[in-house]
Amino acid sequence: MTFELTILGCSSAMPVHGRFMSSQVLNVNEKLLLIDCGEGTQIRLSEYKISKNKIETILISHLHGDHIFGLPGLIGSMNLVGRKKPLDIFGPLGLEYYLKTVFEISESYLGFEINFHTVEHNKYTKILEDKNMKVYSLPLEHRIPTVGYKIVEQDRLRNINPEMIERFDLNYQQIQAAKRGDDIELDNGNIIKNHEITLEPKKSRSFAYCSDTKYNEGIVPYVEGVDLLYHETTYLKNLQSKAQERFHSTTHDAANIAKKAGVGKLIIGHYSSRYKDLDLLLSETREIFDNTELALDGKKISVKC
Ligand SMILES: [Zn+2]
C-alpha cells in the first residue's frame, strides 16, 4: 500500500535554479492529494506523469501567490481534458472568491463541480475523513492567515497469523472478521479470542506540511511523531532576524520543531531564491536533526508499511 510524497516545487516566491514554487502530491493508497499549487504545478504533474484528473482533493495553505497561482491553469486544464469528477478544495477564507473571480472574468465554464471548504486558520481541526485517511488542519504563523495540514492513514487492520489460518481452517469471512478485531466462532461452535490468531496492526503512516511559518513551538503537539514532516526553511540560520521579520523559518527553526516533535524524517524546502546551492541548508539542519532530506522538484519520498 502506497504512502508517497512527490515534490513538484520547493522554491519560495519565484521559480529559480530549476525549482518551481511550492506544490506536492501525496499518494495515500492511490488517492492523490495536491498540497499547494504554485505557478507551474500542472507542468510538473505532466513531467512526472501524475494524472491531474486523479487528484480528488486540493489543500491550500494560504493565499500568497507562490502557493496558489497555479490553480486556475490546473483547473482549466482539468476541464479541457473532460473532467467530470467533482474536486474538493480546502483553504483559508478568500480562496473561493479568488478562483470564482478568475473564472468569471475569463469566462471559464467548468464541466465539473468544485466543492470549496473554508478552513479556519487559527485552530487544529479534522477537516476530512474517508476510508483511506484523516486530514487535519493546524494553525501556522505567517503574515496572512495560513494553515498547515496533517494527513494520517486510517487505522490499519490487524494482521492474521498465517499458521492459525491453517490450524483452524479459517474461511475468507472469518479472516476478514479477525482482521477487524472480532472473535471467531468455528464451525464446531468453539470461540477463538481475536488476540490468539492475530498480530498487532502496523502503525498508521502520517505526513505533516508546515509552510509558510515563523518558528512556533505551538505546532509541536499537532505534528508529534509523524513519519514525515515538511517544514519550510526559507533561510540559513544567519538570517534569523530576517526570518522572524518576514514570518519565515531558518534551518535551525525547522530542525528544532522536528526534534521536539520526535518526527521520523524532516523534509526541508521553500528555499529563498538567494540559495543556488542547497548543501549548507541541509548540513545546518542536520546539526540539530540528522534525518533530514532536501525537497527537490521531482523527488519522491515513501513511507514503507
Ligand atoms: Zn510561500
Record keyword descriptors for this entry:
Metallo-beta-lactamase, Chain A; binds zinc ion; seven-stranded mixed sheet; 18 strands; 305 residues; alpha/beta; 26% helix; 2 domains
Overview of this protein structure:
- The mean pLDDT is 94.
- This protein is of the alpha/beta class and 305 residues long.
- The longest helix has 11 residues, at 95-105.
- Helix 10 (251-261) packs parallel to helix 11 (279-286).
- It folds into 2 domains: 3-156 and 202-302, Ribonuclease Z/Hydroxyacylglutathione hydrolase-like (Metallo-beta-lactamase, Chain A, 4-Layer Sandwich); 159-199, no CATH class.
- Strand 8 and strand 9 form a beta hairpin.
- The protein has a 7-stranded mixed beta sheet. A 7-stranded mixed beta sheet has the order 7-8-9-14-15-16-17, with helices on one face. It has a two-stranded antiparallel ribbon with strand order 10-13.
- The chain is built from 11 helices and 18 strands.
- The protein has helices at 41-47, 65-68, 71-80, 95-105, 162-168, 172-179, 194-197, 220-223, 240-245, 251-261, 279-286, and strands at residues 3-9, 23-28, 31-37, 55-59, 87-91, 114-118, 125-129, 133-139, 147-153, 159-160, 184-185, 191-192, 198-199, 206-210, 228-232, 265-269, 292-294, 300-302.
- The chain binds zinc ion (ZN).
- The site of zinc ion (ZN) has 7 residues, from helix 2.
List the helices and strands and how they pair.
Elements: E1 3-9, E2 23-28, E3 31-37, H1 41-47, E4 55-59, H2 65-68, H3 71-80, E5 87-91, H4 95-105, E6 114-118, E7 125-129, E8 133-139, E9 147-153, E10 159-160, H5 162-168, H6 172-179, E11 184-185, E12 191-192, H7 194-197, E13 198-199, E14 206-210, H8 220-223, E15 228-232, H9 240-245, H10 251-261, E16 265-269, H11 279-286, E17 292-294, E18 300-302
Parallel strand pairs: 3-4, 4-5, 5-6, 14-15, 15-16, 16-17
Antiparallel strand pairs: 1-2, 1-18, 2-3, 7-8, 8-9, 9-14, 10-13, 11-12
Helix pairs in contact: 10-11
This protein binds zinc ion (ZN).
